[in-house]
Amino acid sequence: MEFKNEVLLYKSIGQVLSREIADDIEYYKLDALLEGRYNIYFDKIEHITNEHILRIINQHKYEGFFTGSTYHEDNIDFDKFVVFVNENSNFEGFYNKYKDRFNFINRGNNFYEIVPVGFSKASGIEYLINYLNIDHKNTYAIGDSTNDLSMLQFCSNSIAMGNSTQSLFEHVSYITTNIDDNGIYNALKHFNLI
């Protein structure tokens, strides 16, 4: 987390654990991308068959973010990652090995976002409001997916986009219109923020 060009909060999982996880992604036959502070790591291009990962790579190439870094590099270091489970995966084995150190956020369709225990969007917001001495009643969160659930449950004023994952609706104080139908604007107007 950065504020006024200063890093306030950052949690790397370190090179040793990063290497272990990268090796286990291959061992347990998962498709993945590993997200670090300075780099995003993929499998070697010739090994990737997952259409979602290929789409992300193409998007990163288009936007100029793709560096070609793979999770076979010696100095790999990341802070969170996502996995896609395929028909050959042993997800249960991977989950059982890491469930005590990581939270597995089920994003649906055999897609999981995985973050270190104790670190979430909610913990980031909590850190920031304490750092800036902001009253909790003045917290707002807008989300659309299960990876937003922690912050939506934490903030006093929680907003789901109209096109959100349906399971979010019961956890928010307001449902706005779809993202492409001025959803954020309408939410901010609803709460008299603009």
Automatic annotation (TrEMBL):
<dbReference type="GO" id="GO:0016791">
    <property type="term" value="F:phosphatase activity"/>
</dbReference>
<keyword id="KW-0378">Hydrolase</keyword>
<dbReference type="InterPro" id="IPR006379">
    <property type="entry name" value="HAD-SF_hydro_IIB"/>
</dbReference>
<dbReference type="InterPro" id="IPR036412">
    <property type="entry name" value="HAD-like_sf"/>
</dbReference>
<dbReference type="GO" id="GO:0000287">
    <property type="term" value="F:magnesium ion binding"/>
</dbReference>
<dbReference type="InterPro" id="IPR023214">
    <property type="entry name" value="HAD_sf"/>
</dbReference>
<dbReference type="Pfam" id="PF08282">
    <property type="entry name" value="Hydrolase_3"/>
</dbReference>
<dbReference type="GO" id="GO:0005829">
    <property type="term" value="C:cytosol"/>
</dbReference>
<protein>
    <submittedName>
        <fullName>HAD-IIB family hydrolase</fullName>
    </submittedName>
</protein>
